[in-house]
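Retro notes
What went well: the complex prediction finally ran end to end.
Inputs used:
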Amino acid sequence: MEIELKDIRNFVCQGTNLEVHPGELLVLLGPNGAGKTTLLNVIAGLVSYEGSVLFDGAPVDAVPARERKVGYVFQDLVLFPHLDVSSNIAYGLQATGCSKLEVDARVRELLDLLVISHLSTRYPAMLSGGEKQRVALARALAPHPRILLLDEPFSSLDSRTSNFLREELKRLQRDLGTTTVFVTHDLVEAEQVADRIAVIQDGVIEQIGYPEEVLLSPRPGKVTEYLGSPNVLECLSARDLGHGLAEVDCSGLPVVVPHNGKEIRKVIILPCDVKISPHRPTSKVNVFEGTIQNVTPLVGSVLANVDLGGCRLAAEVPKALFESIRLRSGTKVFVELSLMKMRTRS
Amino acid sequence: MKNRLFEALPVIVFLCIWEGVARLKILPGHALFPPFSIVVIEFYDLSVSGVLGSNFKSSLLRVLAGFISGSLLGILTGTLMGWNKSAGKAFHPILSLLYPIPALGWLPILMLWMGIGEMLPITIIFICSFFPVCYNTITGIRHVPPKIIRVAQTLGASELRILFTVVFPLALPNIFTGLRLEAGMAWRVIIAAEMVAIPTGIGSLLIRAESLIRVEIILVCLIVLSVMCLAFERFFMYLEERVTGKWK
């Protein structure tokens, strides 16, 4: 199913245009209040709008939400608290008039697919965050939706669980081939699940492209302001450290990065993930001494260029911190690169 | 078992003090303060003679008829007003004007309109039950989060299906609160109405006992009233637990 949004206007969207290809997982990435959820609601038919929404080329503007055949997982999951897991999953099937046999068979299939058969008689109040997420996904998938909309479904989970579920979602989405729009404000999450990423700001799609494109070449202006121009470090050599880590030589800097066995040519880290401190941090890895070259004020933060001896990194420092540690050109600082925020490219 | 004993202990102590104080005749006006054992004997006599049973039956039937009809109509009206905005706006002014009038405040005018008969106390109980249950139902329906309704919409449910399978069940805790409070209130009101205007029932027995200065009968009536209020409230607590306890 292809989705096309043409000149969507309402209280948030300002003439939004968007195309989602059949079977792809498109991530809508943007800060809070950018209009991500509103755009999902427009696709689902839950809010009023001007403009046109087309499913496979056919306008659906006059089609009410209940007839659009869209599976929607809301940010806070919103399971029916008075129904057990099986009944939650069965709800959409019963609402669309499936027979009891069909309902039972599909519920069993989804319980198995999402590995939640053991939870079938539990009520939502008895489920953990991860379990609720699986149930919400199963409920949305049950009536064979043409489109799946996911609104920050993993935002309330711990990073380990959300990481695991993201990978499962990606696998599931590929297997089912359902066109999916996934909303997040987390770039790491976006990169992990997306076939393509659309960056939305103030109700307008500012950039759309493959994750690599958006990450490495953010469009100057609002996208760069939001994502930051990434630091791209060329790697001269790499040494496997085991345990999923490698030490790479980036212009003389020994940087420890996550390693999945592939060759590493580049290390990418966003300025907001480069931490600056006047004192040596307690961490033993990825801490380097450097000198501030220059500072550029941004809205609410400051961009500091740090010379690490042959290698230069941009770091985004919150304004309050910048003022408290009195960063100036020539100030000696310590730079810490967050291991989990670094991406590698071959 | 231990908990039950612990709960019953204050009641037993209270009854012992009552018995002791009345027997020792240490209170001024002790002639009008019979011991608990005399009240129990009176309860037995009234039960055996059938006086208590017939009056209790009259009160109980009135309460059941008024409470069931008032609550059902209250739930229906409340659901309509809570779910349908136009109906809510249309009925709200009438409801707001009538709700503050206490149920017994209707007694004089209803006596004139309906005369003294079985319909009078039933109507009073109906009024007493209808408004609070209606208000609680409206509140319950309106407090269902809009997001949960949107989820049901995206799953293909019709408006009516959403109302009956999502909104109404989620409003049940509020509705039960109304029913529980009004179940006890119905008994308080029927006793007051029977004391003033109806010649049969526990309230009527109570006021006749007062004119004959039969304090032990008055106390029997008050104990029956107290037990019935408690029984009705407990019944709805039990029902609420059965219906919503699994998920609430």
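What we learned: Chain B has one domain: 48-243.
What to try next: split runs per interface for comparison.
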